[in-house]
Amino acid sequence: MGDLNQYHYVKDHCSSFTGPFLEIGSRDYGTTWNMRPLFPGQQYIGVDMSEGKSVDLVFDLTKPFKEVDQAFNGVRFNTIFCLNVMEHCDQPFRMAENLEALLAPGGKIYISVPFAWKFHGYPSDYWRFTQEGVKKLFPGLDFDNDFSNTTTSRIGETLPLNENLGRIFMSGKTHRKNGHYLRGLSADILKILRKLGFLRWLTGYRYVMAPTMINMVGIRPE
Q: Taking 80 as the threshold, does the pLDDT of residue 202 lie above it?
C-alpha cells in the first residue's frame, strides 16, 4: 500500500494502468491507502510477507523464480505496484528480477522508493535509492520520464526528478536563479541569522535534505 501522494498519483493515472494487477507489500497497516478500489472488477492480487488485511497471498518474492511462478499459477501482470517496499528487502536485485519476469510484455511497474527518509522497520530498513539505482535494479525495463517525479512527506508536494533531488538550498542566490524569489528572501534571512549565531543546526549547511520519495514507471518492451 502507498501513502496519500502515491494514491493520488495512481488515481490521476488510472487509465495508464490495466489488469491483471499485482501489489507488493499490500498489508494494510492503518496508515496507508488502498489502491484496489480504484480498479473495480479487475483481477487484483496483494502479496506480503505477513498476513493481514488486503493480503491475498503471503509469499517471499526473493525465492527462486520457479517457486514464484508456481505461486502465481503462471499469471503475467500488466501492472505491478511496488510502493515503499524495496528498502525493506534484504535481496533487492533478486526481488527486482522476479518482478520484472512477472510483467507481461508491455506491462508497467510503478515503483516508489525512498531517496531520503527516516529509518523505519517492517521488519527492518536496509537501503536508499537514486533514479539511476532503480534502473540498475530493473535493467530490462524502459523508464518513462513523463511518469517520473519525486514527492515529499508533504501532501501534494510533487517535484521534478532532476539533479536537485531532495535538496532544500540555504543559498538565496540559488533560489532566485530558479525564479523562486520569496524562497530566496527566506534563505537570505536564514543567512543573516546564521551570522548572528542563531539556528546554526539548520543554517550551517549549503543545503539540507527533505524527506523524498522517487516515483518511476518502468515498461517491459513488447
A: no
With 0.85 as the threshold, say if the pTM is over it: yes
Output the 3-class SS for the chain. CECHHHHHHHHHCHHHCCCCEEEECCCCCCCCECCHHHCCCCCEEEEECCCCCCCCEECCCCCCHHHHHHHCCCCCEEEEEEECCHHHCCCHHHHHHHHHHHEEEEEEEEEEEEEECCCCCCCCCCCCCCHHHHHHHCCCCEECHHHCEEEECCCCCEECCCCCCCEEECCHHHHHHCCCHHHHHHHHHHHHHHHCCCCHHHHCCCEEECCEEEEEEEECCC
Retrieve residue 114's grid coordinates: 525512498
Rg over CA atoms, the chain: 20
Say how far apart CA 91 and CA 63 lie, in whole Å: 10
Q: List CB contacts of 96: < 8 A, sequence separation 6 or more.
A: 86, 137, 138
Quote the pLDDT of residue 171: 75
